[in-house]
Design brief:
It is built from 9 helices and 11 strands. It is an alpha/beta fold and 302 residues long. It has one domain (4-224): PAC-like subunit (Rossmann fold, 3-Layer(aba) Sandwich). A hairpin with a 5-residue loop joins strand 4 and strand 5. Helix 2 packs across helix 4 and helix 6 packs antiparallel against helix 9. The two termini are 33 Å apart. The relative contact order is 0.15.
């Protein structure tokens, strides 16, 4: 485990790890933003981070230069960090991991990830992700997922997470989950579905759906009212922007008909084309920028 920079390791009993990776596995930044939202609302401490040198092609995932409040230049590398939230009020302790999908040495990365989880006393892992699909924003966000544990698979179904039957190119989430299965560590994945015509991020509607599913599957209580209001505001902003874009509005109506199963016309005529949504995206980006500014000013851990 030479690639992991350790601080004070927790010693958990029946701990639970929740993880998300930025990149291919994180459409609309819904998965990583959901866990960042969680960390802002619970006392936590970072206990480990990954040395990125062995896992990234820095010509593809370049480090970022920024200037801090004092005017000094800071270099930021792809970050992979483990945080612990102590169990309170009968809730199990949590380990929260937020990282960036690596480009290199996936098998070594996944083994290191699972080894550290077992070392600190994690007994179960939940991996969050999000992907893009032709779905309307006007319907509740769809969730799919899978587990290598029959009890957890039933919990997923009870929480409205339909079983994934995807086959094809995959991301680090699936590799980590397979490694967990090989090392006898029960795991589950939950994926949120992001509308293909909304690239603005983060997507609070999918964030809310992922966190709500978590509260139904694991022993964690979260007050999601503020995120629910944000999701409603986000949907309203999309609706407002669509009113000025008849082509995009008709596309959404077509997706609604498919989602509701009202007719089979859309399926026989082919998938709806993506219209010019430049104005729609600009409006959403303005909303999200103002949201981030408000959050930085007033959103503190409780």
């Amino acid at each position: 485990m030479d690639d992991v920079i350790l601080d004070q390791l927790p010693s958990l009993t029946d701990g639970l790890l929740i993880a998300a990776f930025a990149g291919w596995n994180d459409a609309g930044e819904a998965a990583t933003s959901a866990l960042q939202w969680l960390l802002r609302r619970r006392d936590n401490r970072r206990f480990a981070q990954l040395d990125p040198d062995e896992y990234y092609d820095f010509t593809a995932a370049r480090p970022v230069i920024s200037i801090d409040a004092s005017g000094l230049r800071q270099l930021e590398w792809p970050a992979n960090e483990w945080h612990v939230i102590d169990g309170t009020d009968g809730q199990a302790p949590l380990v929260v991991f937020i990282g960036v999908e690596p480009q290199l040495h996936w098998r070594r990365f996944s083994r290191t990830f699972v080894d550290l989880a077992q070392r600190v006393g994690v007994s179960k892992v939940v991996l969050l992700g999000a992907y893009i699909q032709d779905v309307p924003h006007t319907r509740p966000p769809r969730l799919t997922g899978a587990s290598n544990d029959p009890e957890w698979q039933q919990r997923l179904l009870s929480a409205g997470v339909t079983r994934s039957h995807y086959q094809g190119p995959t991301g680090i989430v699936s590799v980590v989950q397979q490694t967990a299965a090989e090392l006898q560590l029960p795991s589950a994945s939950i994926w949120g579905v992001v509308p293909h015509y909304i690239s603005a991020h983060p997507n609070p509607r999918v964030m809310h759906a992922l966190l709500r599913a978590l509260t139904q599957i694991i022993d964690i209580r979260l007050d999601l009212m503020s995120l629910d209001r944000e999701a409603q505001t986000f949907e309203q902003r999309v609706d407002d922007a669509l009113r000025n874009n008849p082509e995009a509005l008709e596309m959404v109506r077509s997706l609604e008909r498919e989602a509701d199963g009202a007719t089979e016309t859309a399926a026989t005529e082919g998938e709806p084309l993506l219209p010019d949504t430049e104005n729609l995206l600009e409006e959403l980006e303005r909303f999200l920028r103002s949201r981030r500014q408000d959050e930085n000013q007033g959103d503190k851990p409780s």
